[in-house]
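Dear colleague,

Following up on yesterday's call, I've attached the two folding results inline so they're easy to grep. Please treat them as preliminary; we haven't cross-checked anything against experimental data yet. The first protein's sequence and structure tokens come first.
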Amino acid sequence: MKKGGRLLIVDDQFGIRALLAEVFGKEGYETFQASNGKQALEIVHEHSPHIVILDMKIPGMDGLEILKRIKKTNPHIKVIMMTAYGELEMVREATDLGAISHFTKPFDIDELRKTVEQIIAEEHSVE
């Protein structure tokens, strides 16, 4: 059975995008990938994902700017930030801007899966 969630993975590292897309694809999510802010925002406009897994450090438009624009486009999209160790100030700012969770790289894939499942479950219980 499909879990019925659309997931956008935004990271400039192909390996991380591919890994997360594979893991969540197997779990039954529809996944989209973007390597930069422009692609991410196009996917948000076209597909309105339920959850965005967003890396903080992306060349060009950084994660905070992408987060602001996602929330401006659709405040209901849930955003999980991925950060490198030691970016606490950015994490605080991201939380203030509406990010609901964050993971420090290297992250625990099972923890990330559980967080996504919880968010989707909460979404479905509200509908």
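Below is the second protein, in the same order (sequence, then structure):
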Amino acid sequence: MSRPESVRIAYFVHDLNDPAVRRRIRMFKAGGAEIYLAGFRRGLPVTSIEGVPAHDLGRTADGRFLKRVAATAWAALNGSRWAGGVEGADLIVARNLEMLAVAQAVRGGRTRIPVIYECLDIHRLMLSQGPAGRGLRWLEGALARRSAALITSSPAFVENYFEPHSQVGLPVELVENKVFIEQALPPPAARTNRGDGAPWRIGWFGAIRCLKSFRILSAVSRRLDGALEVVLRGRPAHREFPDFDAMIAAEPYMRFEGPYRNPEELPRIYGEVDFAWVIDFFEEGQNSEWLLPNRLYESGWVGTVPIALERTAIGHWLAARRIGLCLGDDLETALTETLQALDREQFRSLQEAVGARVTEDWVHTPTECRHLIARLMDAAPAADR
């Protein structure tokens, strides 16, 4: 079937302040799409992203589930306010369940426009066996029956949630959380060896939301007493920490250096550390076991050695490629002993193994973006176009 020369995508997002939204918009644009953007925000107002005007649906907050439900219901009931944005669209992409509800309401009777459900995290409530979990899975299934395809970022989400628990049943488009760059570039140089005696340095970048990780890194850096430094950058989830600023100030070997631009600053910030912390316990036993996070690909692209748990999807991904530092469940002891025993020659071998991987392991290219949009168009039922 013939495809329009320029695809128009209406993109509904859960958080206009999320840096990952910017990456997806850049990918859609690189794939040749024109974009209408609307969404909630969890920070300051956003007027545009990458030159695309942003239509603000209101402010929500992390963890405020009832407030998010109320905001979603209001936006859905007032969908006619944003209906003009989907007129003439070839696809609607809805990021997260709340936005799928909004997008379906905004689409209304325009059933010719396919809706794509983008789900990159599985909230713990979606796995609950209580009334809330059952209700959310029913809602997700009902909305999915009016959708054309599912975008997700890890095969483990499909294996552990979408196939055994959800009622989604959509064709799956796997889009990993790789770095996106507009041009095919060689990977940047990894951090050079600073010589014997210099402390190891671990970078924990991105969404800083895991209190257990903070405590482990604090304990290990204190046990090593100057032989390890930990650098944090990104967006702390202050709701998850008793007092993030005070906690950082009390740490002798940990420091927070604020947000960063992705991908512009990735070579610099990952180039300043030896290892990348790609471990997450935020939803331990569930989402945290299954995700393949941004920092996995960011660190690998630069040639920084990722640290992961063996039993998680990240650990399996790294083990399949024979790279990275994969540790057991007694993480504090394992990390302490590993860094105490590691010499510079062994580290160079770890670093070289990461650097030897093909760029495509870490990076989305414009060609991939064009193929993605073509596949999304192909996933839409012919009767809906």
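For the second protein, one point worth flagging: The mean pLDDT is 90.

Best wishes,
A.L.
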